[in-house]
Amino acid sequence: MEGSCDKSDKCPRRSWLVRVLVGMNLVAIGSLLYPITRFLRPRRGTRHGTLNVVAPFRVDQLRPDADGEWPAPFEFAGKPCVLVRTSDGEIKAFNAICTHTDCTVKCRPEEGDIFCSCHGGVYDLNGQNVSGPPPRPLEAYKVILRGKPGREEIIVSRT
Amino acid sequence: MSRAPEKPNDSPATRPGLRDFFYDRMGMSVAAGLAAKKKVPIHRSTPFYFLGGMALFLFVIQIVSGVLLSLYYKPSPDQAFESVQAFMTEVDFGWLIRSVHSWAANLLIGILFLHLLTAYMMRAYRRPRELTWATGILLLALFMAFGFSGYLLPWNQLAFFATRVGTALVGVLPVVGQDLLLLARGGENVTGDTLSRFYALHVAILPLLTLAMLGFHLFLVQHHGMSVPDREALRLGGSERLPTMPFVPDFLLRDAVGWYLVLGILAALAALFPWELGEKAAPFSSAPEGIKPEWYFLFMFQALKQLPGHILGIEGELLGVLFFGCAGLVIFLIPVLDRGQISRLVLNILAALAVVFFIVMTAWGYFDKGSLRLILGASLFLGVLSLAISFSDRGTLVRRILWMLTALATLLLIIGISQELYQ
What is the DSSP letter of A115? Predict the structure, then answer.
């Protein structure tokens, strides 16, 4: 008995059993890995977040402060959002994450551009990449103004 | 440097393929040689060899589920409870992973108790396996420390007060008590610093110690081979004449059956009885009713509750703590204490008393209702008695006493069940 059936290729019944055993173990391992991979996926809130946010400052507060600094980016759906005012007074909102290596950009009111200090990337106030390493324009959001003219609330939206 | 002449069979050139590539370069022939040589003796008590493998399997589950939990857990008193609550409700299968971790911890301790008990009954601690026993006891202590430190991490009411009570026990020790208490709590009270300490203990210090100790334990098991009970060796005419099976694949496949059994029980428990989270700890509120430690600390908790404030002028709690300390030391030293027929008899009587004490206190502390206590206690007794009977010789006085006790336990179980059903 033993010895004559050492090589599985000579014993189709035994090799079939081994294959069934291996297959059943693979199914078991798969059923263990399934909940684990699902568990590793970030929760919904951190993946998508909110669709709208009211900016922490009104239209009349959107100007350089005493030191010439533009209002800092604020959180929108887990990411920084920067508000800029173009030369014709239009307010625009961008995802402040630089398209180059995920740094956070800032608006430079005197130069009239959006600048990333990590690698010197420059975007214009429409979010277009003009110089430096950034490969793509900044992701733009929709801006809705609501309230008294001149003192409107700024609502940033992704819809 | 001159190259040693290679055997034509082993030279890489004649062994192509990815499998052979690693086989040659990782010294797999040594491992394969060891695996081929390893034999497991076959006798009546062979099934108890599976318990260690089951515990090892549960430890692996604990590592995997614990690492997964650490991805979402935040160890601070402001966020711990909220983070657990959040991943239980928001993350896919979060409730399941936490439930598996909690249930596996309890199963692991239970299996370790059985492993300890059967190793004692097989007298597997005899020369040259004294260190295997000692490392095993230390591993049990480490896993109980895992349980104690992990209990606090969700920062709920039950955990908070159980930790206060548990750490307070250290404080009753003379001279060093207060310093140890400060060391354990990271302050005079259980605070956020305690949580940080317990977290570090649970995810860094204990795992490192356990891995080292476990490596040593497994090395010793591999080095000395499986211990054969005297009775079995005698029955089959010497331990050399026992039939054996190869470890790979015969015993390993049987081991795998044990793992699947554990996995099935664990999955059923975790899915059908998800672990509760309770209420967030409120450090300045009064302790809620029904504060209890995990079941494996319950016997100590219940016994300490019964002690009066002072016994012969010494603080009752101190005596209790010293008693359990001594009991632990005796268990640790069993290989040294077993020196002959008489000492063995004394040890067996002490062991029987310890088991009775453990079961009575656990059943008493676990339920508030008499009939439920009776059912739990009698069932545990039946389990232990069936183990003990399998290790006793036919026709001896011990065997007869054990059967009588079994009848008694069965009677108690029936009384308990009928009380529970017809009241």
Answer: E
Residue appearing with tokens 């004394």: B346
B2: left (phi over 0), alpha (psi -120 to 50) or beta: beta
User: What is residue B6's predicted lDDT score, i.e. its pLDDT?
Assistant: 47
Distance of CA A115 to the CA centre of its chain: 19
- In the predicted structure, residue A2 carries a pLDDT above the cut 50: no
User: Measured between alpha carbons, how far is B192 from B160 in angstroms, rounded to an integer?
Assistant: 11
- Residue A100 and residue A130 in contact, taking contact as beta carbons nearer than 8 Å: no
Per the prediction, chain B carries an average pLDDT of 90
Asked if residues B136 and B335 have their Cβ atoms less than 8 Å apart, the reply is no
Provide the β-strand partners of residue B363.
none
The kind and range of the H/E element at B346 are helix B341-366
Closest to B93 (Cβ–Cβ): which among A35, A44, A45?
A35
> Which residues in chain A touch residue B266, judged by CB atoms under 8 angstroms apart?
none
pLDDT at A1: 41
CA distance B186 to B180: 10
Residue A153 CB partners (closer than 8 Å, separation 6+): A54, A55, A58, A145, A146, A147
Q: How many CB pairs below 8 A link A and B?
A: 28
**B295-306 helix and B130-152 helix, angle to the nearest 10 degrees:** 80
Compute the distance between CA of residue B250 and CA of residue A145 in angstroms, rounded to an integer: 75
List of chain B residues whose C-beta atoms are within 8 Å of the C-beta of residue A39: 68, 91-94, 97
Of B86, B91, B260, the CB nearest to A39: B91
Q: Are B123 and B229 in contact (CB under 8 A)?
A: yes
Residue with the larger pLDDT of the pair B259 and B19: B259
Q: Which residues pair with B314 in a beta bridge?
A: B311
Per-residue pLDDT at B1:
41
Is residue A41 within 8 angstroms of chain B, CB to CB? yes
pLDDT band for position A86 (50/70/90)? confident
Burial label for A141, CB within 10 Å (0-12, 13-18, 19+), is buried
Would you say the ipTM is above 0.85?
A: no
B301-314 pLDDT, tens digit each: 999 888 888 888 78
Q: Is B92 in Cβ contact with A35 (below 8 Å)?
A: yes
Strand partners, A82: A94
Domain ranges for chain B, please list them: 34-280
Contact at 8 Å (CB) between A121 and A102? no
Task: Report the pLDDT value the prediction gives residue B55, as an integer from 0 to 100.
Answer: 97
Contacts of B87 in chain A (CB under 8 A): 43
Supply the pLDDT for residue B113. Answer: 96
Q: Considering only CA atoms, which of A26, A109, A103 is closest in space to residue A62? A: A109
Identity at B248, one-letter amino acid code: V
Question: Which CATH number is B34-280's, of 3.10.105.10, 1.20.810.10, 3.30.470.30, 1.10.3720.10?
Answer: 1.20.810.10
Considering only residues B248 and B329, tell me which one the structure prediction assigns the higher pLDDT: B329
Separation between Cα atoms, residue B57 and residue B106, nearest integer Å: 14
Peptide bond into B128 cis (omega under 30): yes
Share of chain B above pLDDT 90, in %: 64
